Each structure stands twice: as structure tokens, then as C-alpha cells.
Amino acid sequence: MAPGKKGASRLGAHLVFIDESGFFLIPTVRKTWAPVGQTPVIRHRFRNQRISAISALSVSPTRFRMGLYWMLSLDTIRREQVCRFLGQLLRHLRGHVVALLDNSNTHRGTPVRELLARNRRLRIEYLPPYAPELNPDEGVWGSVKGKLANGSPDQVQELRATLRSELKRLARNQDRLRGCIHQSDLPSFLP
User: Fold this and answer.
1) Mean pLDDT computed over every residue of the chain
2) pTM
């Protein structure tokens, strides 16, 4: 079908990589610099509070522009939250959407099938089991956790504010988002 004819919107779809992660009030420890003989110590109070997060790294079908969408929750991300997130994503992205997810049980089941039945422009594909290196959204979480490393917020509200700030900063940086795609083990598909 020639461009400009009816159905031309089907020429491409947003490619969206989705993954979840968790953030705790316990500090993520990474390598750091310190004077010789002075081992760095991170002091914190043990708290079992956390923030669960889901994000989507999108690639537009025409200009290959990158986008980053996320949802933070004090509860564990379950099927219903995944479906709500996908529904919100569909409101932001025009045209067809192909979502690539891992094989987690939270990405399958009745709520997901019902969502697909209601939204003909959404298609879900699953990455191979035990292959996080194929999901560029893992790079999003690695980048955010790297920025939060060796720190310890005292309150869950402080952690949430820091997460939002880091995710907004990352969303504005096309080079870093493209880096998430390039650092994955996917075959190169970006110009």
C-alpha cells in the first residue's frame, strides 16, 4: 500500500520494551573511591519499605525517537498494574504498539488477554526466558540505580522524589536512552 493511502498508519508501530524494578530504603552499594586504608562506610537504618516501578522504553516507528514512561507504586507490581500501565501507555502513543516483555507471570493471564481483546492496536511479544540482556529497559534501571548508589534516603517519600527526578532527567536525554538500546544484546536496528 502506498504512503498516504488508507491504512498507511500500519506501516510502523512503536516498539516498547517494558520491565519492572524495585527500590529499597537500604542503599545499593557500588564500587567507589576512597583514600587508601579508609574503607567507605554507609550507615543506614534497616527498613523494609520499598517502591516498585515499571517503565517502558519506546522507539517511534518513523523518526526512531526514544521515549521513557514509568509508574511508581508502594505495592508490588501485579497483572492489574501492568494492564493499567499498558492502558496509560496507549493513551500517550499514537498508532500501533508492540510491547516486548519478559516471561514473568505478571505479564500473562486473564487481565492481559482482556486488555489485548479491547485494544486491537496493542500487540505483546515475549522475550526468551532468562534473557534480561535482550531487554534495553534493564539499562534504564541500571542507570537509575547507578545514580542512587551509595546513598540512603531516610523516608520512602524522599526515595520517590529522587526516583522521579532521575527518571525525568533520563527521559530528556536521547543519547542515554539510545545507549540503553545499544548496550543490550539486541541486533542493531537504530540508524
Assistant:
1) 86
2) 0.83
